[in-house]
Amino acid sequence: MNHLRNVFSITALLAISPLQAEVSLPPIFSDHMVLQRNQPVRVWGKADPGEVVTVGFKDQVLQATTGDDARWEVILDPMEASYDPAQLTVSGINRIELADILVGEVWLCSGQSNMEKPMGEQHGQLPTENYEQEIARAGYPGIRLFQYPHYGKVSSPDWQLKWLRCSPESLASSRFSAVGYYFARKVHLEADVPVGIIHSSFGGTMIEAWMPSSAFHRDPLLEPLLYRKYFSWVDGVQATDLYQSMIEPMVPFTLHGFLWYQGEANLMYSESTIYARKMKALIQAWRDAFQQPGAPFLYVQLAPFNYSEWDKFPKRQTPEALPLFWEVQTSVLAYPDTGMVVTTDLAGDARDIHPVRKLEVGDRLASLALDYLPETEKEAPHPRSPMLEKVTIRDRHIILKFDTVDGDLKTRDGEKPDSFEIAGPDRVFHPASAVVRKDRVQLTSPQIEHPVAVRFGWDETANPNLVSATGLPVTPFRTDNWPIQNEKATP
Question: At the topology level of CATH, where does 21-102 sit?
């Protein structure tokens, strides 16, 4: 009887005095990670309410008391970039020791299948160009890779939800984003700093899946979309789903900026101007969530593809649907601290929605990012695609001035510039003859006596030969605002 009484006493004691919860960190903190340089760095986790947690890194030691929500947080002072590996310690009733921590640049890359496309083979896709040679020489211990799994559910614990030193083995086994890797490599080599690159993307998904509910609520035109059901190549992925499972668990990890390669799924809905509102809402929401109001948001314009020849998409596109989408993506550049990569020269096969030339995409994103780094921000701007700056009409001639940062315009093949069309008051476009003079292009057409509008690269399979001095393609554009039908009429 006394034995039973003791058992009941112990059970009652446990009921009113639960076992203490160990101090924990979110998965974004692990061995081999990179902490963002030159910014206050947040470190946070869980513990029992009221527990005092001590965090140490290099010469900094900070303490926090866990709140009623079981969350604690400390903020490390800004640190300079360093290749010297250090230990991060977190202690309460238990002690966590994370080793081989560097300080450098941290960027998050996200989007759908063209961002997700790995260095090697991918089911249903052609492999990235030169992937075997590129993987073989991927020994860069100053680059660290963090792969976020679909829905946040770990299926390969050896390489998901943990930081990995970049090596041929880790790059290949993790099936890491080719664009993300090439971006990290260029930044690492040119700025000579450690780089941590976080990859969290999911092929076939709409931008809505990556937006938090707050992004919809701040725009009355977007709010109804929060409750809409979407067709998706991925079962069950709806508005906010991937933000909740693949972005929010990392919030508010301290980073420098974002890389974005997405839009194909929304184009398949024949979207145009509404997509710009969605992008701006996503940019603002991510900056707010990560508490980085000026974080650069660098993105990739969709590559040429013959959308109009396919009938399996949610809606049927016209040949002008993609150029109109390019225009919408370009308009987002008016939003502060954004940059865009043009890819009209990288498609190769216009029937392949997953172009294999990801090296150029990653390098071009890195060139944009380098303008934000202290090692290079005071230098001349890094190469970027020229954009139309000014239009002058003189009699039968149209003169275009371009914003170039790396010298005069030229053609990739030494021929006259192609892909220009001009129209008169009748709004009928005709091919134009073009002559390059430094940063200007002069256009004429024997069929147009009084030109009023220009279009350049205005075709879903466009591959114009006009480039910058360093070979970057000129950004497609039009000077008119005439109505364009981007969806085919229902048969």
Answer: Immunoglobulin-like (2.60.40)
